[in-house]
Structures are given as C-alpha cells and as structure tokens.
Amino acid sequence: MFKRTKVTDGTATGQGPDAENWDGKEVGFRKKSKVPGVMITQYIEKLPEGKSHPDFTRKPIALTIQEGKFAFFKAIVTGDPKPTVVWSRNNGDVSDPARYQSKYDPNSNEHTFEMPHVKPDQADTYKCFAKNEYGQAMVTVVLNVIEVGFKMTKAPQQQAEVANCNFKKVLKRRSKVVPKAEEPEKKEGEIDPKFWELLMSADKKDYERICAEFGVTDFRWMLKKLNEMKREREEEQAEFVKNLSDLKPIHINADGTASFELEFDLLDPSSSIYLYKDGEMIPYTKELGDKMKHCLRKVGRKYIFSMRDLMPEDAGFYQLDVEDVNMFSTDFKMVDFLVKIQEVKAMEREDAVFECVISAPLSKLMWFGKNMPLEQGDKYDIEVSEDKLIHRLVVKDCMVVDKGIYAACAGIKSCNAWLVVEADKGAPKGKKTARKTTRAGGSGTDLQKVAQEQQQILDKEREERKEKIKAAREAAAEAAAAEEPEKTADSGAGKDKGAAVKVERIGHSAGKASGGAKQDGSHADAGGGHSAGKASGGARKDGSIADAGGGHSAGKASGGAKQDGSHADAGGGHSAGKASGGAKQDGSPADAGGGHSAGKASGGAKQDGSHADAGGGHSAGKASGGAKQDGSHADAGGGHSAGKASGGAKQDGSHADAGGGHSAGKASGGAKQDGSHADAGGGHSAGKASGGAKQDGSHADAGGGHSAGKASGGAKQDGSHADAGGGHSAGKASGGAKQDGSHADAGGGHSAEEASGGSRQDGSLADAGGGHSAGKASGGAKQDGSLADAGGGHSAEEASGGARQDEPLADAGGEPGITSGLSDIHAIRGQPAELTVKMNTDCDGAWFKDGEPLKSGGGISITKDANIHKLTIHSCRDTDSGLLRFVSGDLSTEGRITVGDVPEFDEDDLHKFSKPVIVRVGQNAAFKMPFQPQESLTVSWFKDGTELKDGGGVKIVREPNHSRLLLRDCLRSDSGEIKIQLKNPFGAVEATSQLIVLDRPGPPEGPVETVETTSSVIEIKWNPPKDDGGSAVTNYIIERQERGHSLWTKLGDVSAEKTSFRDRNVTHGKKYSYRIYAENPQGLSDSLETADSIMAGIMILSGPPGKPKVVSTSKTCINLTWTPPEDDKGVPIIGYQVEKRKKDTNQWLALNAINEPIEDVNYAVKDVTEGAEYEFRVSAINESGAGDASPPSAMACAKNPNMRPCFKDPEDFLVVRAGNSVRVKISYEAEPPPHITWLKDDEPIAPWINVINTEGMSQLVIPSSKRSDSAIYTIKAKNSVGEAFFDVEVRVTDEPKCPGPVELEQTVYGKVAVSWVPSPDQELDDRLYYVVSQHDSNTRMWKTVADRLFANTYTAHNILPGIEYHFRVYAKNDMGLSDPSQSPTWGANSNRVPISSNGVSSMEISFERPPSILVPLKVHTPPKGYQLYMTCAVRGCPTPNVSWYLNNTCINSDKNYYITNSCGVCSMYILRVRENDGGEYRVVAVNSLGKAECSTKLTVRD
Predict the structure, then answer these.
(1) Could you give the CA distance from residue 691 to residue 649 in angstroms, rounded to a whole number?
(2) For the segment 48-78, what is each residue's pLDDT rounded down to a tens digit?
C-alpha cells in the first residue's frame, strides 16, 4: 500500500520559526527568491552594505521512496552572516536522533536531512528554515513513502480508530478499482466498478462501446445513474481543482511510449497527485528525468502521464487522483495480431496492400513505412472494417523508391513485412508508364472468416455478461417481492405441536438458530443467536425447557437430550464450535450454557440426579465433564494450561494435586500409598502437570494448570476428589467418569475444541456450560461417589481426568499397551491417507474424530489385523481435518490430520518463468514468480542446485503473492539453472529457468601450430575457444605483424567452422607474428598470439660490407663511408646497420635498428662525446635480417679540425637611443679558440666599455650610452691558423629638435616656396632629414607632401586661389620625428605676385566655368570580398579639385581606396570589399568659381 502525505496548514511541534528556539519575529518584508518555491522574509527595510538575508541556491527535491530505504533531503543556502538551518515537519517532531539526522558539509556547503530506514509514518510535508539576523528563508518539500507487505498492526489500528470515532482515517477513500489480490469475489451479474469510472472520463460517443464491452443494455438506467455519479464527483473535484478539461485517453506514441493527458488548475499547489494502475498506487517521477518507468510532466495547465519500455503487464486500468478524488480514468488494452501482414511484391505503378486481423476491436492502428509514421493521404489509404478487426494499408502507385519495411503497431505489439517493388522492364526508357489498376499483396488467408470467428467469441463473452446481469436483477426483484409477505407473517403460526411453544429470538447469526424438539408442553428456545453456525435447544422427553439461547458462537450451541422434566440449557454460547448440554435420564438439569469457546462445550451424560457441568471453559482444547456412575461431582472447569496437567492415580482417600500448572515442562505429584498429599501444582511449565497416584481416600488435584500440556484428574476408586480444574491449557480438560450421584464438572473451558460434561448413570447434573476453550476440557472417570474435576481448561492440548479402576495404573508388562501410536499428519486433498495403531496384544479398539465415533463408510475404512488397527481415508477432503483418537479400553492415542494442497504454479506463469533470461555481462538479471498466498509457505531459490541466500550480489524479495530474485552485475560464470522451490507441510513444487549471461568469447585455444611455411605461403592452425560467451562464435579475425615493425595489420577473417588460415602475402626470409581473435555478437575475444615469429622460407644473410672509412670529424659529428658487400647471396640488400665502440671498451652499440636500415653507404654519426675516440663497423640487411659485420674502422676522435676564425651572420649597423645600454653580439667559429680584441675607430676601447667572451660568441656592452659613443667598432679574432676582422657601426642618437620658423613665398602662379631654419641637430646627425605636411581648408586633413628632404626648402604645387593652406615641417632621424614647425596661413590676395600686361590691349576670351557633373555615380551592391570600380565624369575650368567622401569622411588619403582623376574621369577602386565599406559615397569637385557634387549608396552583400 502507498502511504499518502497529509498536507495541512497547521504547525506541529518543532515546526516553523519557533523550532530550535527561534525568536519568532513577525514583522518583515516579503522578498522574492530566484529559486521558485522559496519564501523569504527580510526583517529590516534596508540591508547594511555587504550583508544579505538567507536564500536557497539549491532547494530540497520532493521524494517518493520505498519503506525501509535511506531517505534524505539536500539544500544549499547563502547569506551574510552565515544562516542557521533548521528542519521540521508539519505533523510530527524531528527531534528523535535515531530517525532524523541533520548534517552539514563545509566543503560543499550542503545541509543534509537524513532519515535512515524510513517508515510510513514519516510521510509528511517537511520544511527547511534558514535564518540570520537580517531575515529568514523557508522552503517546503514532500516525502511520500511506499509501504511494503502486510502490516499486522493495521487492522487493530483501524479498529482502534473506529472505537475512538476517528472515522475520517478509516473511511479515507481509496481507488474504487481495488487490486486483483484484494478484489472480493464478484456476485453473479455484478457490474465492474471500472465501468462507471470509464464512463465518467469518456466522451459521449464512446458510451455505446463501453456499455457493449461490459454487457450493459439498459441505457436509460445507465444514463440516470451516471448523471448522479457525475454530480457527486464534480462536487468532490471542486474542492481541489478547477477548469478540468481536455481529457485524452491513453494511447501509444510514435516513439514507443504510452501517454494520457488532461488539463486542470490546482486550488492548492501543494496538493498531492497520485497514479493508480488496477487500484494499486504506482510511483512516478517529476524531476528525475527518465530513470523511472512512469513519468508525470506538467506543461502549463496540462498534465501528461507517460510510460516507457512498454510490456504486456503494463495493460490495465489507470487513474489519476488529486488527494482523495479521482480526476481521470482510462483503460489501456493490449491487442494481439491474429493475422500479421505479409511480404508484398508489386510491379512499378501498381498498388500494394498490407492487411492484418487483430484480437480486439481497435479504431486505428499506427502504420509505419521505413521508420516514418504514415497518414491517410494521396499516397496511402488506411482502411478499417466495420467490426474494427481488419485493418489495411494501401500504398498507391508504387515506385522503386517505396520499397522497404512497413510495420503495423497496436500498442506494444507490432508486425512488419517487406515491400518489394520491381521495375517495369517493358516500359520505354525515359517515359513514365501508365498507372496500373491492379493490386498486389494481401494476407493470403480469408481475413473475413478469421474476423467473424473472433467477433463470435467477443459476442459470446458480451452475451454471457448480459445474461449474468439480467439474472442478477431478476433474482434481486424476486428477493424484494418475497420480503413483503415475510414482514407480515407470524413466525410462530402453525408451529406449535401440542402444548409446546417455539420462539425464535433476535437472530444476528449468518447460520441457523433453532429451538429443540420436545415431547411435552415445555418451551424450546433458540433465540438470541449471533453465531454464524447453529444454536439449538436440546431434545426433551418431559415438560422441561431446553434452551439454546444467547449463542454468539460461530459453531453450534446445543442443549442436551433429556428423558425427564429437567432443564437442558446450551445457551449463551459464544464459541465458534459447539456448546452442548449432556444427555439426562432423570429430572435434573443438563446445562451447557455460557459457552464462549471456539470449540465444543458439552455437558456429560448422566443416569442419576446428579449435575454434570462443563461450563465456563476458556481453554483452546476440549473441556469435558467425566463419566460418573454415582452421585459424585466431576469437574473439568477453569483449566488455563496449554499443556497437560494431570492428577495422579490414587488408591486411598488422599488428594493428588497437579493444579495451577503454568509450566512448559512437566509438573508431577509423587506416588503415595497412604492418606498423605502429593502436590504438583503451581507449575508454569508447557509440559505436563500431573497429580500423584494415591491408594487411599485422599484428594488428587491437577487443577489450575496453565501449562501448554495436559491437565488431568486422577483415577479414583473411592469417594475422594480427583480435580483437573483451573486449567487454562490449549489442550483438553476433561471431567472424570462417575458411577454414583456425585458431580462431574468440565466447565469453564474456553477451548476452541469441545467442552463436554461427563456421562452419568444417576440423577446428578452434567454441566458443560460457559466453555471458552478452543480445545477440549474433560472430567475424569470415577467409579465411586468421589468428585472428578477437570474444569476451566484454557489449554490448547487436553486436560483430562485420569482413569481410575481402584487399581494402580497398568504398566506395559503383561498388560495391553500401545507400541506405536498416532501422530500429527498432513494429507493431500484428493489423495488417500492411512493412520495405523499397533498394540502389544490382540485387543479391540474404537476410532473417534473430534470426539465423535467413526465407522467404515463414507470414504473411510476401519480395519483390524491382529494387533494392528488401521483407519484409511480413501480421498481426503477439507472435512476430514480434525483430531483423531483411538481408544482401546483404558488406553488411547491421538493425532491430528490436516488436509491441504501442495503448492502449485499457474501454468501461464510457469511457462513465462521457464523462458531463459538472457543478459549481458555487468547487467542485472531478474526473476519473478507469482503464486497463490498460503500459510506456512517456504520459498527458496537455487542456482545449479545450490541454495541462494540474500546478500552481496543476490537480492531476494518475498511478497505474499510472489517472490523476486535479483542477481546484480552478472558474470559469465553466473550462467546456469535457476530454480524456485515452494514448500509447505504438504509437499514442495519447483520451477526452473535458465540464466544465460552473454559475454565476449574466450581466446582461441593454443598453441598456434605452423602447418606450412614456404617463401610465399605461411599456414597456421588453432583450436576453438573453450567458452563461446553464451552465443556461438561467428568468425575468427587474423592479424599479422612483421618482425621489427610495431604495426599490426588485419589480414582478414574466416568462418567459425574453419580454424586455419593461409597467409599468401609474405616475403621470403622475413619473420611474422600472428594473433587470432574469436568474434561473436557480443564482441571480440582476447587474442591468441604466436609464441615465436614464423619465417617465410629459409633465412639467407648477406656477406660483410667493406671496412668503414672516416671522412671527417668534429666535436659533434663523425662522417663515415663504406662499400657494399662483395657477396650478397643473391638476396637484395635493403640497407645497413652501423655500430660503434668506444676506445678501451668491448661493447658494440647499434646506431640504428634493423627495421630502420640506412639506405646509403655513408652516415653521419652524431651520437658522440667531444674528445672521445671511436671505431665503427657496418652490417648489410636483407629480408632475412642483418648479415656479418665488416672489419672495424680506424679510431676517430670527436673534435673539430683547425680552422681560421670566421664570423657567422653579424649585423653591421646598430642604432641606440642615448641613455640606453649598447649590446653588440658577434658569433664566430675557430679552432683553436681565438684571441678577441675590440677597437673604436681603430683605437682601443675605453675602460668603461665591457667585453664578454664566451665559447663561439663575444659581446661589447656600453652600460649608459651617449652621443659621443657613436663610432665604428671593430672586432678582431686571431688564432694559430689566422685572424679575421669585422666592423660594426653604432649610432647613439635621440629624437631631433624641431626646425626653425617657416616662411612662404609665391614666385609663380600656383606654386608656393616653403623654407625653414635648420634643426639644431642637423650638424650633429648626418642622417637627419625633413618631412613636410600640407593642410587646406577644403579637405581639412593633413597629408605628407614631401619626405626625406635633406635641404631646407620645398616648392608646393597646385596652390589654388580662394583656399587657405597651412604647412608643417618635421625633423626626422633614426629615432623618429621631432615636434612640427608651423607655417603662417597662405591664401590672402596680398600674397600674390602682380603680373603686368606690358601695355598690350586685346580682347580676352575666358574659358573659366564652375565645376559640373557630367556622369553621376551609380548604385552598387557588390558581394563581400569582391572588387569594385566606381566612376563619374567632372568638368570645369580651371580644373576642379576632386575629393571623395564616405559617410562625410574624406578618403583621398586612405590606402584602402585607390583614387584616380584622368581628364575629368574620376575613378575609385576597392580591391576587396569589406562590411565597413558600405555607406554613402560622395564626390565633390571645387574650383575658384564654385563646386559641384554627386553621391550614391554602396550596399555590401554577404
């Protein structure tokens, strides 16, 4: 059962801000958290800087977990100062450290709330509080606990709740569709509750289908009742949700999952949502992804329930509840294919038909073609028959591209087949053929006949349901009609025979309450019977009253048989057995009243006027009054013992007492021969309490025994008192047999068996009333006037008065005895059973069952063969169960027979279990076996005959109706036979299955044998692997590695039947290694590798090469050369191997591997140490390997040869800023090392200049340079071989000073002479020059017009009137530019030079005109990265100055644009267009008479 969480708004102990001594501030400001569901209260309006209120960065996640598992919540909180975290729950306390543990991990900052071994009562809404001095954050989380198994305390708990009037919990609603295991047996014609649940969630168009399915034909009655139920349901739903709509039944999706959905709004977001399947709650996930099978997702208002990994057992009735109210119900059915689709071969442009028949009506199948869902349309026709059993897919106008696999899916069942489309060979090429009118395919069977047969089966089932409903209604109508006359009929009319009156009192029993048969005018009363059995008054021969009233027993309460006017009463019996008054022959009363026993309480048979009493027995055994022949009293009352309490045998008037026995052992009074007292009372043993044997008239007492054994009164021959009373045993308490008028009492027995009064021959009273025993309480047998008492037995065994014949107890000597008695047996229902008693002498005996004598007949045979007595039951039935007793004289033996069945499995479950379970290595293997719940059933699991125990990788789960075995992380060795055994006292049954663990195969068996090796072929052979991994080996893969190489090459594979391979791609003389893999569907095995390399053919090695010669030596390298071998043995040489040996050593070291041969006949040995001497030798390598080595070379020393100094790639010019250090580095080579000298302008260098010499390099360092350090520095290297010189020019300089004032002068129209005063650094720096920049009022940009000017003048051209000009002059050297010298503004008319006309007068023609645009710019949209030309035509006189603008920025000096102006044609060229080149381009032409412009836009495309 699933324990639902109770979500309330109350605050329990330990909950809320007061938990853990919170101060409980109420005033605060609500703040919103970034994490949904977190409530934040801030205590102050404005937080101090750097401080913050608590908040959750990770909140706990709702959890649904099985009982007994480890449950925990995790949360991460933030805040400054660090918050304190406290956990609480709505309905309970969390202070018990054994059940609740709060932990904090400072490394991960996680707060954990743990509940080990979670219990159902811990299901609740939990709260987590985080608090600091600035605020509090709170979040709630729900814990649901799934209960496991049956709880013994559940029923008493519910009874207690009823007693306390807590009806809310007791009557808490569950799903109306109960689980199959709890489903009560349906009455004939009863309507399944699923019918109404489906109707309330279905569309009206589906009402007829649902009614037909459940056999309901009275639609008017159905609609009336449905409307009433809907109104009630809507009222219930309105308490939790609103706007319930869009109910969609469960269906199969294209991805193989099943889902249903509905929309509603929860009134309380914390309300719990539950899912049921066939009445059983199923766990689901909302936040754990797809790890669980069932999932409930919320999308807006829509709730979507889905299932994945569908199996046949997923079919069932699904319901969604909010709290205790059902919202939606849907039925998920599984159908099967009676006829599957078949392969279709169609010609091109012909229609293809797939058709199938299913087992239950379905309005639509899902069709797939080449893994794509198909719908009705121009290409496909989907047809369904009227009965919805035949489904067809028509692929119209088939083309070759339509071929593939087509499938039909009905739930999780599917079938598929190929569509093969053959091209029309007779069709003309390049032309489309006409569409054919024929159809190809079909199932090949009579689908209509199959569908009709299935429809008949479905109709028959439907009619049977209708008939059952009809019969049930008719029976109900007849019962209602019969109740009316019964209400008015007088129950006593016509039932009084003579003077007798029979009254049937208020009968609450489910059985029969009956008054006894009387022969006089007395009154027989069987009223007040609350028993489920039979309460009956006794038979009387006089005018007395036989009363069996007040019986609350589930058994039979009966008054005794009387022959006088006495009173036989069996009333008040609360026993589940039989309460009976004894048989009387006088006028005394026989009373078996007040029996509360579940067994049989009976008064004894009396022949005198004495009183036989078996009342008040609370024993679970049998309380019986003894048989008396006198007027004495036999009492078997009050026995509480579960064993056997017995009074001893006495021969005198003394008293033998075995009373009060609570012992589990045996308490016994001693044997006495006088009038003394032997007492074994007060024993609490579960064994036997017995009174001693007496020979006088003393008192033997075995009363008061609480033992689980047998309490018995002794055998007496005098008037003494034998007492076995007070026994609360579950056995048998019996009153003794009396021959006088004394009183035999077996009363007070609470036994579930039989409480019986003794047999009397006088007028005494035999009483078996008040028996509450489940066993048998009996008084002893007496022959005198003494009292035998075995009353009050509570024992589950037998409390019995002893047998007394005024003789001591007979020994086994020469007296009759039982050598082999009865014992408890278990008999199988329907099978024969045999019970045998063996005596030591040939004597007669009698058989009794539950106190009733047995005779042959009715399936029972009683036989005697000499001293062997047999009772045979030919076919055991449930009624044959009971206590069997064999009596022979004073000897008796008894045993209980229990009839039952051997456990058995359902055939379908057995067939399903017998299928092998196949898993891969590392996966879990699960076995499940259902069975019928039984008592005393032992379930055991075995693997290969060895019993499995729970623990480690084995998990065994035992439920009342099934058992599961889980083997975790299976290995290949876990494969074998899995067996489950069910065992009870009647026998055992077993079911077997196979576990197959699939794995890669083992490696092939070695060693690898070489079958053949030649110069062109190598053949190898191996053996199959011992372990194929659970699936057959499909093939072997062979790889090869050539000796000296590291690469393995795959040669190919061979089939599993062949275990040899011929390698034909080999080279003579080479050696190869091979490895073989076995492959099965699970993968490749480990490899089997050859132990040694296999050579192709015979090894032929080359002769030695010539003696190596040393060509040259250096300290890092020695160059060698040699000649090829004179005799190569006819095998081509592929290279050489060189070895070296250091002087004064014996070890030769190879300089190259054999698989890396030196192809040339010379080699540079670089692995040498300077100054060391070496000798070398060479070997020739062919396909077979390295041959003989050559003679060693002469000793060679690794040192450089003598050489004159030389400089390596020096720099001859160096510029340094004044104040910085100067470093001149010169590398050289010389042997021996040279002497280095530095000169400055051919003079020795100053002492503050540092020179640093290292091997192969010399440095000149001037720490802080000045301009005077500028000079030519010379390095001189000299050794014994020669000398070398090199000059380096070092220039120490700084940024130059700006030039002097700038002057402008115009001597010619359109030209201006610019002159300036030289920079002061001109004399100090011969590399100084000048740069001139120009700026005009038109372009407003500075541009360089002259560079590298070594003079102090410059002539500017194209100086136009009306435009202002400015000039800047810079001094520049190797360190950079100086500050500029600015010129005055040029452009005033006073600056012009006047031109005289020399007195010549003539008519002048002016050609001057302002600029104009002849051809404007065009719009361009070039792609990005392409080149672009943009042109326009301009004219004007004087020639206008043309400027280009992009987005109002002049681009004339931008290097990204190439601009030209030739004869008025202005062009702009872009080599590669960029994104930032887009925009508005404008051309402006200006002369002294005006200006003109045109523009266009450039758009750059991607």
Answers:
(1) 7
(2) 888 899 999 999 998 888 888 899 999 999 9
What is the distance, to the nearest Å, from the Cα of residue 855 to the centroid of all Cα atoms in its chain?
Answer: 64
Hey, is 324 helix, strand or coil? Answer: coil
Provide CB contacts within 8 A for 624, sequence distance 6+.
602, 604, 614, 636, 732, 733, 734, 735, 746, 749, 754, 755, 756, 757, 758, 768, 776, 777, 778, 779, 790, 800
Q: Rounded to whole angstroms, what are the CA distances from 1143 to 605, 1106, 1122, 1177?
A: 133, 21, 21, 14
d(CA 540, CA 558): 12
R_g of the chain, CA atoms, integer Å: 59
Does position 1029 have pLDDT exceeding 80, yes or no? Answer: yes
Helix (H) / strand (E) containing 1080? strand 1071-1080
Q: What is the pLDDT of residues 1398-1412, one digit of tens each?
A: 544 445 567 888 999
Q: What gap in Å lies between CA 396 and CA 353, rounded to an integer?
A: 9
pTM (2 d.p.): 0.31
- The first and second tokens of residue 65, run together, are 């977990």
Residue type (1 letter), 570: A
Q: How far apart are CA 74 and CA 603, in angstroms?
A: 71
Helix (H, G, I), strand (E, B) or coil at 904: coil
Our measurement of the distance from residue 1175's CA atom to the centroid of its chain's CA atoms, rounded to an integer in Å, reads 73
* Integer Cα distance of 706 and 1461 in angstroms: 134
Per-residue pLDDT tens over the stretch 94-140: 989 889 999 999 888 999 999 998 988 899 999 999 999 999 999 99
Residue type for 845, please? Answer: G
Q: Is the dihedral of CA 153, 142, 179, 510 positive or negative?
A: positive
Asked if residue 1368 lies in contact with residue 1380, where contact means CB atoms within 8 angstroms, the answer is yes
Alpha-carbon span 677 to 683, nearest angstrom: 16
Structure token digits, residue 350: 């012909």
CA distance 991 to 968: 21
CA distance 1084 to 1075: 12
**What share of the chain in percent tops pLDDT 90?**
26
Q: Which residues of 923-959 are buried (b: 16+ CB within 10 A; e: fewer)?
A: eebebbbbbeeeeebebbbbbeeeebeeeeeeebeeb
CA distance 348 to 1016: 53
Amino acid at residue number 1240: K
Going by DSSP bridges, is the β-strand pair 938-943/946-947 parallel, antiparallel, or unpaired? antiparallel
Does the bond joining 361 to the residue before it have cis omega, within 30 degrees of 0?
Answer: no
Alpha carbon distance 1165, 1339 (integer Å): 71
**Inter-residue contact 627 to 760 (CB < 8 Å):** yes
